Amino acid sequence: MGTKRDSTKLRSSTVPCVGAGRPSDSSFVRGGWFRMITHNREMADKVSPEERDERWERIYTYRKWLLDNVLREGTVLVLPVDEGKPNYRDAPPP
To answer: Where are the domains of the chain?
Structure first.
């Protein structure tokens, strides 16, 4: 039997989301995330169950190919990692 969560407790214990040097209480995060979620829900309403299933099947096919042909045992995957500081597009290149 599940327990009901208190949303105020959950909100206060959640780690703040900080992205691209913007604090979690900025209007970008409040408005941007809401618009993104709303857009995603609107797009999901336009996809039929058959289209959804076909797209999931494509994802599973790609996953199988990736695991069988690229990420085999002994594979080293090198990822580009930056210094971990904001890199704003309106700033001159480093």
So the answer is: 22-70
